Amino acid sequence: MQNKATGVVSGHYADGFQHAVDVFASHLTDGEEIGGAFAVYHRGTPVIDIWGGTADLATQTPWQEDTRIVVFSVTKGFAAMALHLLADQGRLEWDAPVADYWPGFARNGKSTVTVETLAGHRGGLAYLDRGFKLADFTNPAKSAEILEALEAQAPAWVPGEDQGYHAQTFGMYVRELFERIAHESMGEFLRRELFDPLGSDARLGTDASFDDQFATLYPPTAKTRVIEMVKSAALRPHTPEAHVFRQYLDRKSTMRRAFTNPAVPRNDLTAYNRTPVRRAELAWGSATSTARGIAKAYLPCAHGGEFDGRRYLQASTIEPAYQRIGWSDHDRVLQKPLGWSHGFLKEETHIFSPNPESFGHAGMGGALGWADPKAGLTIGYAMNHMDWRVRSTRAVALCNALYKCLM
Length: 407
Prior knowledge:
Layout: E1 3-4, E2 9-13, H1 18-29, E3 35-42, E4 45-56, E5 61-62, E6 69-70, H2 74-88, H3 115-119, H4 143-152, H5 169-182, H6 186-198, H7 222-235, H8 240-248, H9 254-259, H10 275-279, E7 288-289, H11 291-297, H12 299-302, E8 306-307, E9 310-311, H13 315-318, E10 326-328, E11 338-341, E12 344-346, E13 359-362, E14 368-372, E15 377-383, H14 393-406
Antiparallel strand pairs: 1-2, 2-4, 3-4, 3-15, 4-5, 6-7, 8-9, 10-11, 11-12, 13-14, 14-15
Helix pairs in contact: 1-14, 2-5, 2-6, 7-8
């Protein structure tokens, strides 16, 4: 990279990518962003690696090159990588029933649910009937209770016949499936097989060596979220946000139940960025990373499973993710068109990429990990000011600016 970022932005960028840097800077100067980072690799070469703003408002600590944050559902993309690695090693078959690997899963109408159906959010398991708290998932004494709830849960719809984002249960089921096959933790497996060889600082289960690098998370207040949702429902009644708000008012809706169990104390999402949750391997939302670490983790995904002379996956293992394996014009939970391919998110082409081959996973509030094998791109975006929308306008703007740079 030849150009040094200046002004409110630090880092470097390659010729031709000034526009994306300017958009990132504008988010800082207009107050949309508090602190964050944006990293992009193009055909394996870093072309954008920038950061700026404030990591902590109370101390006025600036966002640094190694500042990290919890990335919420970007974690699911990492979990999908773990499943793909198992499949590549011949240890997992996508069309096999989950119960072949986890016999207890077969209870209450789940015996024919395949790995592909589960990973594609089509298993009807978007919520648990039994209530839990977030702290239960950092308490080993609760493990047996959680396992019993997962096995006892009956599908809310005929598996395979509909789609609803398994916002939290995805990670619960997929991690249990993974560990029954691999006989080790998902976080340690990803670190050894993917993150460390790629030089990525992404972690699922973040150890104490990173504790002094964390930014403070700033989610919207409950009042702000409600006000914005009400305005959206009144002024833009056909947006995903309006649909989500109406669903949230129904205590029995799939959408509400998917997002509210396990319960977070006082609905304070900063709990996800605190030490107990960071240490835990919550495969739906507790991974932490820098933006650069996210972009590096996706490098094999954008290059047929190979990067820098090392083959991580056979092309035949990763290439099915280039296609839409599952799709819904109106997902039961996120209330918008989208789909998944073997655990990776497939978005509408006007959101993160114009290329339907692209995939990855967005995180609540705005964080993003994305791969575009057609354009040879990997993208990492991490920030501490969470957006209230289903898809962050800042993440979308950065991606749109990036593709304009490639024209």
